[in-house]
Amino acid sequence: MNDKIIERIQTVIDHYGLTISSFADKIGVQRSSISHLLKGRNKPSLDFVMKVVQTYPEVNLYWLLNGKGNFPHSEQIEDSPTPIFPLAPQEKNIPKVGEKSNLGKVEASRIVIFYTDGTFESFEVKNS
Q1: More confident of the two residues 16 and 120
Q2: Which position has the higher pLDDT, 32 or 72?
Q3: What span, in angstroms and rounded, lies between the C-alpha atoms of 23 and 43?
Q4: Which three-class secondary structure string do you get for 64-101?
Q5: Who has the most CB within 10 Å: 1, 17, 23, 100?
Q6: CA angle 65, 67, 70 (to 5 degrees)
Q7: What is the pTM of this model?
Q8: Tell me, what's the pLDDT at 95?
């Protein structure tokens, strides 16, 4: 992360008309950590960034991290990229786990659990 992220954090604080203390309280971090961050003593952690994005949905994660995109974030259908993968699997030709297909029985190879704090765990399935 570069030093420009500090400027974007300050932009968020200013946009909402918050003090450093009220911003810290709202996102659930110590007031001193915001002060150290804004003075350049510390860099923001991923946990910090995720708290900002979760507390303020108008803050676009990509904008906060890279400066690309918009703040405040607005959903614009025309500007939305077409997803590479479909959002939901098509029902035809995709067998469910454990069902027979024309290729044989389908088995899971990996299970990924996504948590609301932005973290995840991945488990490899041992097929016997």
Answers
A1: 16
A2: 32
A3: 17
A4: HHHCCCCCCCCCCHHHCCCCCCCCCCCCCCCCCCCCEE
A5: 23
A6: 110
A7: 0.55
A8: 61
CA 62 to chain centre: 9
d(CA 78, CA 37): 36
For 104, which DSSP code?
E
Kindly report the length of the chain.
128
Distance CA 35, CA 3 (A): 15
Compute the distance between CA of residue 8 and CA of residue 35 in angstroms, rounded to an integer.
15
Interatomic CA distance for residues 32 and 37, integer angstroms: 8
Q: Residue 104's beta-bridge partner residues?
A: 101
Residue 17 DSSP SS3: coil
Q: How confident is the model at residue 1 (pLDDT cuts 50, 70, 90)?
A: very low
Burial of 34 (0-12, 13-18, 19+ CB in 10 A): buried
Please state, in angstroms and rounded to a whole number, the distance separating the CA atoms of residues 90 and 70. 32
Please determine, for residue 23, whether its predicted confidence score (pLDDT) is greater than 90: yes
How many Cα neighbours within 13 Å face the side chain of 87? 3
